[in-house]
Structures are given as structure tokens and as C-alpha cells.
């Protein structure tokens, strides 16, 4: 990610209904919420209420949560983003907590339901309450304190500290951030971000169904990363990023240090996933990082069998692996990389593998179950169609579990990168024509790029 500090662009053009009065931090069945009234979290950081969008005429009305403690209106969650309501002269929308423990948004008192939660009937109680926590999470809570529903399980375009971006293994379902349609319209846009439902060990940013950016497959690294170090230098924020894996689900979440600036990930309507913090001194959102930071590491930008070398400064560039050449040399030289690279000579089943460390492994891999590095190498080596493999021992990152990760690739290598020294990087073992599997030596001239690095 590009951690250079930037100033956030144009403010979101939405209009907040000026509160006629403010309630406390919760709703109960006898106390509905209407335009002009807000629910404010106990610590004063967040507010729940109605706001107008400037993206339509007449303006649509939405139920949302925003930061109440900063002057620039920044909405972090919207309930009815696909079903806006209007505020008429004779009727007004209303949010009610029912005796069935559901939040129900109607276009007027007793009118058409436009949005509601889905809490089971077994949870019915007149003592249930909806509480806005100081994390920005709106929860429905039973009288005994059990949480029945939470807004954190239904994100819109914003990822807040304490939220989980998850994949459930049984259903392959999970949360995604979905962008606004434009700066003034909170209805769902075309960009989304979340876990890969096919593998659950990498994250994607999509434009519709087309991938825009892909993270590295999880290597088992824990919290310590460059994010924490660089943000600490601001003397304002320490961020801890974690990946959690258990028998039922895997998820990513982050936390920030006590007293830190308001901090969030947001998927903008233009398709940028930004890490932002509110600077109260300058009254601006500061962008500490952005995906994707460079054109080179957009999904598949370097074409099949090409890779984006992020260690090349100041601008990362596309390269071919040694043993490969550009498929179209003239186009490659002119900066058109989408045709990628091809092998200089055909592979044989007896060809061996060269280890390339500091890599972002390609997409479209198959996962082999718990195995050793030797067994992972053998599984790929005995398959003449296997082009590469990567291995990681995840046990040190998952308490009380013995888990390894063997990835293998058959066919073209797509969306590969070179990251250099990074906890998120991996060692990719690439099958190389002319490399003797037994001795690890090259029968042809030594590799031009990796020979000196890996002593091949």
C-alpha cells in the first residue's frame, strides 16, 4: 500500500437533518425514532438518525450512522440504501423497535415497511432494546444481555475498528463493503471488497464481477506489519491488524490504540479502498494508505506469467520471470503488458523448481490439505502440469491448531508480484525449463535475475 499522506478529496454532499432534540444511546419499543431526532452513543462518538442525499431530486431520506464528534458529516452505515424514503408534509418515516425484537423502518407511522432486521420470533420481548455503541455498532440486545443483531454484520462502505470481514466455511457467505453510487448517493455502487469466497485466505476488490485488486494469500503472519510501524510514526495511531481462522469461519479485523484519531477503511465510489484517519487539527480526513496504490499491481495488469515488481522505485514495473519472455515484445516495450509472458522453451517432467522469495503468489491456485513442505513439493513435482507451488506453516499463528497451507498452480500464473522483504510475502517455487530436479543446477546459462540472489 502507498502510505504517503494525502488529503481526502471532496466532501460527501449530503444534508443532515438538524436535530430537534437528541435522545440517549438506545431505542425501546415505546420510543420510536423520527426525522430530527438522533440517538447518540454513550461516549458521544457516533449518532444514529435520518439524513438527506443530494444525489436525487427530490432528495431521498436514509437512516444512517455517522460520526457525531467531528464537524464534517461522514456516514459509516446506511440501513435502507437500496430503498430510500421521502419526508412528506403529512407523514414522515419512522424507525420502531417492535415487541418481536426487530428494528422496522416504515415510510410513515403504520405505513409500508422499507427495511427491517431479521431477529427470530423466539426473541420477542417488550424489554428488548436497540443500543448504539461508541464503536459505531448498532445492536439489538435482549433483557439478559444477549446480542440478537448488530449492524457490524451488515456493513455498507466502511470498515470500522472491531468489525469483522469474514467468510463462513459452511455457506461460503461473508461480508463485503459496497461503495456508494456517487459522492451524494448512498445507494449501492459497482465496487465491492471482501474475502475470496472460493479460498477464504485472500481479499479482493471487485468492480461488479471483475477483480480490480487482490491481496496476498495469508501466510500465517500475525499482527506485526509495516502498517503498525508507519502509523506509529505519526504519534497518533497504533493499528493492529489480525487474521483469525477457526473451524467455522475466517475473518480479518483491526483495532487502534486508545485515544487514537477516528480511523476507518472506506471503499470510495471511485473504487479506491482507503485507510483514513480524522485529523482534528486540520479538520480533514488524512489518507494513510490506498489500494491499489500503483497501476502495476492492479489485478492481472502484467498479464499471464508476468509479475509486478514492487521493489522497483519510484514506480513499480512489470517483468517476466527468468526463463520467460514477453509474448509481444513491441507491445511490452511500449508499456502494454496485458499479453504477458511465455516460456522460452517447453517444460519437461524432469525439470526442477527455483525458489523465489519475497513474492505475492499468483491467483487461481488449488489448496492441498495439511502436509509438509517436502510433501507439497512432491505433490507438484509428480504432476507434469504443475507450474509452481508455495508452502506455509500456519500453526504458529493459530492457537492450539496444526495447520499448513500448500498452494499449487496448473497452467498460467496470473496476478503475481514481487514484494521483497515483507511479512505478507511468500516463497514461490517456480518450475523452470532446463533446471535439473536432482541437483538444482541449470543446464543452460545461469538465470539473469535470480541467480545471484538465490545462488542457483
TrEMBL record:
SMART domains: B_lectin, PAN_AP. Residues 24-153 form the Bulb-type lectin domain. Residues 1-23 form the signal peptide. InterPro entries: Bulb-type_lectin_dom (IPR001480), Bulb-type_lectin_dom_sf (IPR036426), EGF (IPR000742), Pan_app (IPR003609), S_locus_glycoprot_dom (IPR000858), SLSG/EP1 (IPR035446). Gene3D superfamilies: Bulb-type lectin domain (2.90.10.10). Residues 349-433 form the Apple domain. Involved in sporophytic self-incompatibility system (the inability of flowering plants to achieve self-fertilization). One of its GO terms (biological process) is recognition of pollen. GO terms for molecular function: protein serine/threonine kinase activity. This is non-specific serine/threonine protein kinase. Its EC number is 2.7.11.1. It catalyses: L-seryl-[protein] + ATP = O-phospho-L-seryl-[protein] + ADP + H(+); L-threonyl-[protein] + ATP = O-phospho-L-threonyl-[protein] + ADP + H(+). Residues 292-330 form the EGF-like domain. It is found in: Membrane. SUPFAM superfamilies: alpha-D-mannose-specific plant lectins (SSF51110). One of its GO terms (cellular component) is membrane. Keywords: Disulfide bond, EGF-like domain, Receptor, Signal. It holds the Pfam family B_lectin. It is an enzyme of class 2 (transferase). It is a single-pass type I membrane protein.
Amino acid at each position: 500500500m502507498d502510505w504517503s499522506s494525502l488529503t481526502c478529496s471532496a466532501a460527501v454532499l449530503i444534508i443532515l437533518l438538524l436535530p430537534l432534540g437528541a435522545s440517549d444511546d438506545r431505542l425501546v419499543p415505546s420510543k420510536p425514532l423520527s426525522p430530527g431526532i438522533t440517538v447518540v452513543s454513550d461516549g458521544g462518538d457516533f449518532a444514529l438518525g435520518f439524513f438527506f442525499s443530494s444525489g436525487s431530486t427530490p432528495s431521498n431520506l436514509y437512516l444512517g450512522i455517522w460520526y457525531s464528534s467531528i464537524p464534517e458529516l461522514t456516514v459509516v452505515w446506511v440501513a435502507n440504501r437500496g430503498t430510500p424514503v421521502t419526508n412528506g408534509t403529512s407523514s414522515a418515516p419512522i424507525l420502531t423497535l417492535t415487541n418481536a425484537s426487530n428494528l422496522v423502518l416504515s415510510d410513515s407511522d403504520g405505513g409500508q415497511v422499507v427495511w427491517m432486521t431479521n431477529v427470530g420470533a423466539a426473541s420477542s420481548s417488550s424489554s428488548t432494546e436497540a443500543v448504539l455503541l461508541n464503536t459505531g455498532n448498532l445492536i439489538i440486545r435482549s433483557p439478559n444481555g444477549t446480542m440478537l443483531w448488530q449492524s457490524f454484520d451488515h456493513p455498507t462502505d466502511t470498515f470500522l475498528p472491531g468489525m469483522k470481514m469474514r467468510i463462513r466455511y459452511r455457506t461460503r457467505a461473508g461480508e463485503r463493503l459496497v461503495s456508494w453510487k456517487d459522492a451524494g448517493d448512498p445507494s449501492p455502487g459497482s465496487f465491492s471488497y471482501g474475502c475470496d469466497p472460493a479460498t477464504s485466505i485472500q481479499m479482493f476488490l471487485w468492480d461488479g464481477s471483475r477483480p480490480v485488486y487482490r491481496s496476498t494469500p495469508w501466510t500465517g503472519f500475525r499482527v506485526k506489519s509495516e502498517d503498525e510501524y508507519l502509523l506509529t510514526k505519526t504519534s497518533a495511531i497504533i493499528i493492529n491488524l489480525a487474521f483469525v481462522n477457526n473451524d467455522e469461519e475466517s475473518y480479518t479485523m483491526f483495532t487502534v490504540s486508545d485515544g487514537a484519531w477516528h480511523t476507518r477503511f472506506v471503499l470510495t465510489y471511485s473504487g479506491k479502498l482507503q485507510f483514513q484517519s480524522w485529523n482534528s487539527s486540520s479538520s480533514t480526513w488524512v489518507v494513510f494508505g490506498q489500494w491499489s496504490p500503483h497501476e502495476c499491481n492492479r489485478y492481472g495488469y502484467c498479464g499471464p506469467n508476468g509479475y509486478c515488481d514492487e521493489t522497483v522505485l519510484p514506480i513499480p514495473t512489470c517483468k517476466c520471470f527468468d526463463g520467460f519472455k514477453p509474448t509481444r515484445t513491441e507491445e511490452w516495450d511500449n508499456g502494454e503488458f496485458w499479453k504477458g509472458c511465455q516460456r522460452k522453451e517447453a517444460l519437461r517432467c524432469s525439470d526442477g523448481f527455483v525458489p523465489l522469495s519475497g513474492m505475492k503468489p499468483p491467483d487461481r491456485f488449488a489448496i492441498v490439505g495439511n502436509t509438509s513442505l517436502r510433501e507439497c513439493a512432491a505433490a507438484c513435482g509428480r504432476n507434469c502440469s504443475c507450474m509452481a507451488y508455495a508452502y506455509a506453516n500456519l500453526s504458529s499463528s493459530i492457537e492450539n491448531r496444526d495447520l499448513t497451507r500448500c498452494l499449487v498452480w496448473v497452467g498460467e500464473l496470473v496476478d503475481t508480484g514481487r514484494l521483497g522483504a515483507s511479512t505478507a510475502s511468500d516463497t514461490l517455487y517456480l518450475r523452470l525449463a532446463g533446471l535439473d530436479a536432482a541437483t538444482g543446477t541449470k543446464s543452460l546459462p545461469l538465470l539473469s535475475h535470480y541467480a545471484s540472489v538465490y545462488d542457483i
